[in-house]
Write a structure and sequence with these properties.
alpha+beta, BirA Bifunctional Protein, domain 2, Elongation Factor Tu (Ef-tu), domain 3, 5 domains, 6-stranded antiparallel beta barrel, about 25% strand, catalytic activity, acting on a protein, aminoacyl-tRNA deacylase activity, alanine-tRNA ligase activity
């Protein structure tokens, strides 16, 4: 067998299928686009779902790819097994209703065994098939695989719920006697069993059924092929590695980690090897995820990144690596993957900055986790329980990133155990929740045969013409069925041989307008336009008067609506460019919406955009509007477009010809939308607001032209109202007047606070002089007239200095529905077993609140002032019982 690098193996796979007429689909972003069912792209087919469910018909029905993917459902196994990973690459070849079993099986055999390609020994290859799929077994034998190398396995049926499903065949490689970990007679010692000798390297799914909502299986009108070959697995075969980690995909990262540790080497010890593997795996996943625009946070994708990063840091500590070491692994990952993913090295500086900030943040979190663990240990010892509860260990793992093993180590050092059964139960419950979510959300849609088989020629002319005088109505669809006409009152979907109506795409909403007959009558109103699977513009129309297939109509786009949308689309391109110019090239588009009223642009950015940066962005766009830049477009090939400096959205699929829209020399982008001819047509650009909408994703909303002017006028009117209220002679004097009023307010507040302090001291003098004796303890409990918790805390400080009583309870009504409450205990009271937190939990509910604190001091807030007297009585009763 050949000695091949990971880059050569990937390249050879893609080139082989390219030689069989496949188009190479670039690896898409790990962040799914237009697919809310996925948290991450988790397989090679995940980015192709639109083709398999028939919502889009590809230009070439033969596709191949090497797709980066992330799965974290078995994260705790990473490092402990030979082949569990969070980030991995899946290579595959796909047929969308083109070839099937007779082609794909011989091709698989050719790629694996031909000296021109992988050159594997045919005697080392085995296959499993579904027992009822005798066609696959027969084709394997005819292709050259010995019959005794083929096993029938009931599990060989791929089905994830509603949508395409079918039997599959798995291919295994015999790694030899040295890898055999089970005796020959073991029932798992066969290709397809749980053993290390026979390694699965490829799975080919024959997607031939629709799994319907009624839970039946119907033959697909267009049968598909979906295959997956894990790059990490097959590289381990070519590089004779016992696990995936002893390959060129991971070893450089492991060696770098060795350099930073305390002298520990990979291979020295099984436990430290786990840490090296975790670090190598997680460094890859975190680097790629951040490169694709995800950012650490407490939810969704951001939580996954945070958890992986923290897990790696903890394992770094086990190796004696302290400080922010993961940043040093980012360029190592980039160099390993540079041949196919050059963007990682290009973004390395930005990725390192995000990783460094998160590592620094985790140091504080780690300290908090250790404090919690130490507190739990102290509590368990005090109660002489001997065991840390499983739910506590799980919280340390889930919230603070502490692996169970780390908690167990700390516990053992203190002579304690950890409830492993309880921990496993909590972990299993989490897995069950995740599995249920995946089962509900993973399926593809069922193919719509009518639309996928609709091959009418339809041309879009709206870039140059907003009216077509003679468009032939080719197809009419009513209630999901083809018809020859539609009558008044119906909603119908129609296709014309040519159309000026823009179909919703790239965030730009569809055009609106009218369908007019030869008599000049408006016979239908166009309410929406979408792209059909084969690319036609599918118009949704409200029929006002009968329309017939084959008749000729005039199509007229609503010009006012179209122009407003075009202005906002041009402004969106200018905003995109301005963000990159001012915030940095690492800001990438995460979504957009272009309407007549406003534009919305989502982008990746770590934190809120500072106000001064927003001002710069707004000023830059208005400068470019003032420069009256020409907006032009050209249709060309992808390479020529890139030479023009055009920016491509990495999640988009582009054909052989692309349209590049240029705004002077300021911006050039791949784009199929509509635009103005000159930036001066926008008149004015105004940002309405900036906000966060998710982990590491920000949103800017803005308006242009008349809408921007109206917004500015509204702001001017509001400012004038403020100027009038503060009696400013002119609008420009309003800020000075407001500042003077603020200073005056601060001085008045200072005086109020001073008076309150004096009153509080006077009240304290009378209250502290008369403590009540309750059950042998002195109690001061009173309601005070103060404005807030600060005054209560001040009085508690005075109480402590003067040692006025054993127990203090102070309550104040600080608003119509607001109560502040403070409880304090003297050292003598604490020694007697009383705690402020216990008392406050008793009295706070009576004023509609809750609270907590230290044994010597606790505070709470409430919403029920009418319960104050009851709370004071409850404090008296509580002390009487203690």
């Amino acid at each position: 067998m050949k000695e091949l690098s990971s880059a050569e193996i990937r390249s050879m796979f893609l080139k082989f299928f390219e030689s069989k007429g496949h188009s190479i689909e670039p690896s898409q972003s790990l962040i799914p686009k237009d697919d809310p069912t996925l948290l991450w792209i988790n397989s090679g087919v995940a980015t192709l779902k639109k083709y398999f469910d028939g919502s889009v018909v590809p230009e070439n029905k033969r596709i191949t790819n090497a797709q980066k993917s992330i799965r974290t459902n078995d994260i705790e196994n990473v490092g402990h097994t030979a082949r569990h990973h969070t980030l991995f690459e899946m290579m595959g070849n796909f047929s969308i209703g083109d070839y099937f079993k007779p082609e794909v099986i011989p091709w698989a055999w050719e790629l694996l065994t031909s000296p021109e390609w992988y050159g594997m020994d045919p005697e080392k290859l085995y296959a499993t098939v579904y027992p009822e799929d005798q066609d696959a077994k027969r084709i394997w034998i005819e292709t050259g695989m010995p019959a005794d190398h083929i096993y029938e396995v009931e599990d060989n049926f791929w089905d994830i719920g509603q949508g395409p499903s079918g039997p599959d065949t798995e291919i295994f490689y015999d790694r030899g006697q040295e890898f055999q970990d089970l005796p020959d007679e073991d029932p798992e010692m066969y290709p397809g069993g749980e053993n290390e000798r026979y390694l699965e390297i490829w799975n080919i799914v024959f997607s031939q059924f629709n799994h319907t909502p009624e839970n039946t299986y119907e033959e697909l009108p267009h049968k598909n092929i979906d295959t997956g070959m894990g790059l990490e697995r097959v590289v381990s075969v070519f590089q004779h590695a016992r696990t995936n980690f002893e390959t060129d995909l991971f070893l450089p990262i492991i060696h770098k980690a060795e350099e930073m540790g305390n002298g520990v080497k990979y291979g020295d010890d099984a436990l430290t090897d786990v840490s090296f593997k975790v670090i190598a795996d997680h460094a890859r996943a975190v680097t790629f995820a951040i490169s694709d625009g995800a950012l650490p946070s407490n939810e969704g994708r951001g939580y996954v990144i945070r958890r992986l990063l923290r897990r790696a840091v903890l394992h770094g500590r086990k190796l004696g690596i302290n400080g922010e070491f993961l940043t040093q692994l980012v360029p190592v990952v980039g160099h390993i993957m540079e041949s196919y993913y050059p963007e990682v090295l290009a973004n390395a500086e930005y990725i390192e900055s995000v990783v460094a900030a998160e590592e620094k943040r985790f140091n504080a979190t780690l300290s908090d986790g250790l404090k919690m663990l130490n507190g739990v240990i102290a509590d368990v010892k005090e109660k002489d329980a001997g065991t840390i509860p499983g739910e506590v260990a799980f919280k340390l793992s889930d919230t603070y990133g502490f692996p169970y093993e780390l908690t167990e180590e700390y516990a053992q050092d203190e002579g304690l155990n950890v409830d492993r059964v309880g921990f496993d139960a909590q972990m299993q419950a989490q897995r069950d929740r995740a599995r249920a979510a995946r089962a509900d959300m993973k399926s593809m849609g069922v193919q719509n045969v009518l639309l996928t088989d609709l091959h009418t020629e339809s041309k879009y002319v709206g870039w140059t013409d907003l009216t077509v005088d003679a468009a032939i109505l080719k197809d009419v669809i009513v209630d999901g069925e083809l018809a020859d006409h539609a009558t008044a009152g119906m909603m119908a979907q129609v296709v014309f041989d040519q159309t000026p109506f823009y179909a919703e795409m790239g965030g730009q909403i569809a055009d609106r307008g009218a369908v007019i007959n030869a008599d000049g009558e408006v016979v239908a109103e166009v309410e929406d336009v979408q792209t059909a699977p084969n690319g036609q513009h599918l118009h949704t129309v409200k029929v006002l008067k009968e329309i017939k297939a084959g008749d000729t109509y005039k199509l007229d786009v609503n010009r006012e609506f179209h122009l407003k949308v075009s202005k906002n689309h041009t402004a969106t391109h200018m905003l995109d460019q301005s963000l990159r110019n001012i915030l940095g090239d690492h800001t990438t588009q995460a979504g957009s919406l272009v309407t007549p009223e406003y534009l919305r642009y989502d982008f990746t950015y770590n934190g809120a955009v500072p106000a001064e940066k927003l001002d710069e962005i707004e000023a830059l766009i208005n400068d470019k509007i003032g420069e009256a830049l020409k907006v032009s477009w050209v249709e060309t090939d992808i390479e020529s477009a890139k030479k023009l400096g055009a920016v491509a959205v990495f999640t988009e699929k582009y054909g052989e010809k692309v349209r590049v829209v240029s705004i002077g020399d300021f911006n050039a982008e791949f784009d199929g939308g509509t635009h103005v001819d000159n930036t001066s047509e926008l008149g004015l650009f105004k940002i309405v607001g900036e906000s966060g909408i998710g982990a590491g994703v920000r949103r800017i909303e803005a308006v242009t032209s008349t809408a921007a002017f109206n917004l500015m006028k509204q702001h001017e009117n509001e400012l004038q109202q403020i100027a009038d209220a503060v009696k400013a002679p002119q609008l420009k004097d309003a800020p000075v007047k407001v500042a003077a009023l603020q200073d005056q307010l601060k001085e008045l507040q200072r005086q109020v606070n001073s008076l309150e302090a004096k009153l509080a001291n006077q009240a304290a003098a009378s209250i502290f002089d008369n403590p009540e004796d309750v059950n042998g303890h002195s109690l001061i409990a009173a309601q005070l007239e103060v404005s807030g918790m600060d005054q209560l805390r001040s009085m508690a400080d005075s109480w402590k200095e003067n040692n006025s009583s054993d127990v203090l309870v102070l309550i104040a009504a600080t608003g119509e529905d607001k109560v502040n409450l403070i409880v304090a205990m003297s050292p003598a009271a604490i020694k007697a077993g009383m705690k402020s937190g216990d008392l406050i939990k008793t009295v706070a509910p009576l004023v509609g609140g809750n609270g907590g604190g230290r044994p010597d001091l606790a505070q709470a807030g409430g919403k029920n002032p009418s319960g104050i007297q009851a709370a004071l009585t409850a404090a008296h009763d509580w002390l009487a019982e203690h």
